[in-house]
Structure formats: structure tokens, C-alpha cells
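step 4 of 6: structure.
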Amino acid sequence: MTIVAVFNQKGGVGKTTTVLNLAAALTRRGCQPVGIDLDPQAQFSSISGILASSPDDSIYSMFQRNRPLQDLIRESPSGIRVIASHIELSKVDALYGKGYNAINRLNTSLQAEKSASGNTSWIIDCSPLVGAFP
Ligand SMILES: Nc1ncnc2c1ncn2[C@@H]1O[C@H](COP(=O)(O)OP(=O)(O)O)[C@@H](O)[C@H]1O
Ligand SMILES: [Mg+2]
């Protein structure tokens, strides 16, 4: 299992573009990666063609309701596997407080996928906010 997090505290520096291109290239090679949108602005979800109509369809429900990542994966029109974001994700700091709690929650979920999803690559589009997901 490979986990790649693309982060930078600035917006507009190419994080989302990098995640999309990396996910698209790996998908084309038959690797079936999963792109996780951790930015509440949901730009990666949007340009992939995957919009979460409610927080329950997004990565937020992993944090809020302990949903397994596997349940949240959807396939984009171009065949990229995506876990969408939702504006409610901006409340994760309030749910977990600052610090490592939210990060640990995500890490626990990713590790739980190790046995279920085997060799999957997870590519994470981080938010530019200085919070749980800097
Ligand atoms: N390598 C690049 N060369 C030129 N423009 C780029 C490049 N990567 C991204 N962009 C453009 O820069 C803008 C911001 O990119 P984006 O990936 O949304 O940044 P971020 O996710 O860091 O906010 C977009 O309009 C995108 O098309
Ligand atoms: Mg972005």
C-alpha cells in the first residue's frame, strides 16, 4: 500500500492538479489508485465529476461516523476512483480539536484498508488551511 499526500499551505500552487494527474496516470496503467479529496472546497471531487450530495457520501462520514474508506469510493466518468469531499469537512477541527486526533483517525482507516485493499495507492489532496489537514 502506498500513501501519497500532496500538501502545501498555499492555495493555487498545483496540489489538486498534481493529485488528478497522478491518479489519472496510475489509473491508465491499470493500478486503480484512490484519490481522496481532503479539501472542504472539493475541487478535486468537482473536476473528477464526483460531487457528494450530502456529507454522508464524502470523506466526512469516515470522520463523523467511522465509515470504512472502501464504502466511500466512487468511480469518476473517466474511471478514476475518488473519495469525495464536502464543505462539512471544514468542521473536522471542531469534531476532533486541533492536533493529531483527526490525522490518527484517517491513518487508522487507511491502515484498516491494508488487508482489504491490498496494494492500493492512496493519493490525498490536502487543504491549504492550517488546521487538521495543513
Ligand atoms: N504545472 C502547472 N503549470 C501551469 N498551471 C498550473 C500547473 N499546475 C496547476 N496549474 C493551474 O494553477 C491553478 C491552481 O492549481 P490547483 O491544482 O487548483 O492548486 P491548489 O490545489 O494548490 O489550490 C489551476 O488553474 C491550475 O490549472
Ligand atoms: Mg486544491
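step 5 of 6: annotate
 - The chain has a mean pLDDT of 92.
 - The domain at 2-115 is CATH 3.40.50.300 (Rossmann fold).
step 6 of 6: archive
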